[in-house]
Amino acid sequence: MNAPDKLFSSTAVLPDVQSHADHRQLAIQRVGVKSLVHPVSVQTSKGPQPSVATIDMTVALAPDVKGTHMSRFLEVFQSHEDPLAYHSLQSLMDAMLARLESDQGYIKIALPYFVRKAAPVSGVESLMDYQVTLECEVRDHQRTTTVTVVVPVTSLCPCSKKISDYGAHNQRSHVTIAAQVKTPIEIEELIATAEKAASCELWGLLKRPDEKWVTERAYDNPKFVEDLVRDIALALAEDRRIIGYSVESENFESIHNHSAYAKIDHLRRA
Questions:
Q1: What distance in Å separates the CA atoms of residue 202 and residue 115, rounded to the nearest whole number?
Q2: Looking at the domain assignment, is residue 3 inside a domain?
Q3: What is the pTM of this model?
Q4: Fewer beta carbons within 10 angstroms: which end of the chain, N or C?
Q5: How many domains does the chain contain in total?
Q6: 7 in a domain, yes or no?
Q7: SS3 readout for the chain
Q8: Domain span including residue 49
Q9: Per the domain annotation, does 128 fall within a domain?
Q10: CATH code: domain of residue 155
């Protein structure tokens, strides 16, 4: 056997440096992989949908262990074939904790999510994209699952409408809902909650009759940024599946070079 054959022989014993003891005796709360980009399947109300996600996976490391096994995170994720949803996220967490031999862990999966929508008058269909983040954390024997959606909407200023002889300035707003859930909740439901509270929702494709409708819809339904977060917060508080939430809105002003912003935070913290 030559040197290369001997080096890669299956019988060769390679040192496992990261399993050595560490004399500094400092625990690490999160160690693992960050910003892993990977194709995924996410569960929607109409079945699985392909997407590309950015993933963070970490566990806690005991103070006497030198390092974690980084390759195991990818092994766990790549062997997880179920579409991403509430229950599959729990099983992914369980698999990671077992494989990494840890009792604390954190998973964050961020991805674009698409909804096929029909325009309000013409009925023409198009895809609307939303940013979705799924998070699961196990810490101090407690498990928290959070679904976050970023929903673009239209908001029209009530003050501008009130003081102007004609017209009113409006803006595109990004509403961010983070819902801590104890049972499954569909992403489309959170999206609908934000869109219902806005002056008007958005569509990817509109014809002239649709443009007329959305313009008049926003004008008839003015909302301050404060109105947006309060109305959404009230809706989230009534949902028994949600045990904690935050809602924020950034309104990209059309008459200023800054944004209007508001946030209500009722997230549970361990």
A1: 11
A2: no
A3: 0.90
A4: N
A5: 1
A6: no
A7: CCHHHHHCCCCCCCCCHHHCECCCCCCEEEEEEEEEEEEEEEEECCEEEEEEEEEEEEEEECCCECCCCHHHHHHHHHCCCCCECHHHHHHHHHHHHHHHCCCCEEEEEEEEEEEEEECCCCCCEEEEEEEEEEEEEEECCEEEEEEEEEEEEEEECHHHHHHCCCCCCEEEEEEEEEEEECCCCCHHHHHHHHHHHCCEECCCCCCHHHHHHHHHHHHCCCCCHHHHHHHHHHHHHCCCCEEEEEEEEEEECCCCCCEEEEEEEECCCC
A8: 26-266
A9: yes
A10: 3.10.270.10
The two tokens of residue 15 are 């040192």
12 falls within a domain: no
How would you write the pLDDT of the chain (270 residues) with one tens digit per residue?
A: 555 555 555 556 777 766 677 788 899 999 999 999 999 999 999 999 999 999 999 999 999 988 899 999 999 999 999 999 999 999 999 999 999 999 999 999 999 999 999 999 999 999 999 999 999 999 999 999 999 999 999 999 999 999 998 989 999 999 999 999 999 999 999 999 999 999 999 999 999 999 999 999 999 999 999 999 999 999 999 999 999 999 999 999 888 999 999 999 999 876
Which tokens is 24 given? Answer: 């500094």
Question: Residue 38 CB: number of other CB atoms within 10 A?
Answer: 13
